Amino acid sequence: MRTLFYPFLVPGGVLLLAVAVLVHWLEVPAGVEALLGYVPHVVLALGLFLGWRFNRSRLIFALLVLAIAERALALTDGALLLRTVAVLLPLNLTWISFLRERGLLTPWGLVRVAIIGAQVAAAGWLIHAVPDRLSAWLRWTPTHWLELTTVSVGPWAALALALSALIVLLHFLRRPAVFEAAFFWALPAIFLGLFVTHSQQAMTLYFSGAGLILLTGVLETSHFMAFRDELTGLAARRAMNEALLKLGSRYAIAMVDIDHFKKINDRYGHDVGDQVLRMVAAKLAAVAGGGRPFRYGGEEFAVIFPGKGAEEVVPYLERLRISIEQAEFVIRSRRRPRKKPENPKNRGSTRQVLKVAVSIGVAERGGKRAPEEVLKAADQALYRAKKQGRNQVCRK
pLDDT tens across 118-162, in order? Predict the structure, then answer.
């Protein structure tokens, strides 16, 4: 469950709480209050730079619509503009959250800029040309009991925010990632800025908070990509190198290698090979004894056991080896229909079970050996396990 709730709540939920505390409960000193006026400019500039540097056009587009909305509300004091922004802004953030990263100065990027610009032009024309008709539409409700009398910006704005939050939340549940969660937390920040606050400064801070949430979402995603293996979800080799520097005086390292993995790739294709890697990684993630698994490279994994010796961790590694050996990995036939037939025939011809096994070598820190030497010793033990017939655990 942590893999779902942690990226949802951190950092987006934490940052929103911090902004709410700053706006509603903290008394900001006069000197600091003057500096708060620069916050939106700093967030925008930093966000644009990071969006360009990390090739995150969604961040740039989201910050662009936030900046346009904030500046429009800051420079023009009008209830009609407020209601219009309250409808368009959450819908645009929802749309942007679903976009693919296709660059900014590309045909796709220019079309998206044009869509945003067309909305600004259309909204400006409607506000100046037919303000009464637009105001009546924004205030209209299908039935009297649906009228949200407590919402100053109108029922359609409330509906747009609620619908956007639901769609973005479902999108996160489908693709749980920090940046997807950031779009969700940006919506409550907008809600608080438009619905709850009654000052321009507070609204600007909430809009800046929404931008900061999106910005940190990109940073967290980049950190995840650097320290996590995208295919398996395990910590990557870079994370392992840092973990090795933090080990104490007693630990064991195990090297795990999938047996005959090249043959699996050659016979069944790389898609099946990737599925095998994910299956083995899932078993490694559940290893007992306090082991921390890492994707070392290719079909090879490493497990670090802080505070334990090699003899102590062998039983855990044996259980890991057996669990992988006993796992049923079913390969779907290419002739298998996409939809399950009502009366399946010749079921055995479409179901093929692949047996997967691993060889494991383990070594512990002895004397004053450096982590690199322990890793090398575990690799030598793994080589011996391969040489002695595979599908076994050898200790150095």
Answer: 999 999 999 999 998 888 888 766 554 444 444 456 788 888 999
Under DSSP, the state recorded for 265 is: H
- Cite the beta strand spans of the chain per DSSP E: 251-258, 292-297, 300-306, 329-332, 351-354, 358-364, 393-395
Round to whole Å and give the CA distance between 117 and 123.
10
Model confidence over 335-390: pLDDT tens digits? 545 455 555 555 544 567 888 999 999 999 977 789 999 999 999 999 999 999 99
For CA atoms 113, 115, 118, 124, give the dihedral sign: negative
Mind listing the domains of the chain with CATH numbers? 2-227 (no CATH), 237-336+347-395 (3.30.70.270)
**Of 273, 183, 179, 266, which Cα lies nearest the Cα of 219?**
179
Which residues are 301's β-sheet partners? 256, 295
Which of 70, 180, 299, 364 does the annotation list as catalytic?
299
pLDDT in the model for residue 107: 92
Cis preceding-peptide flag for 371 (omega within 30 of 0): no
Say if residue 327's pLDDT is above 80.
yes
Would residue 33 show up in a list of annotated catalytic residues for this protein?
A: no
Task: Using alpha carbons only, give the angle 62, 3, 355 rounded to the nearest 5 degrees.
Answer: 125
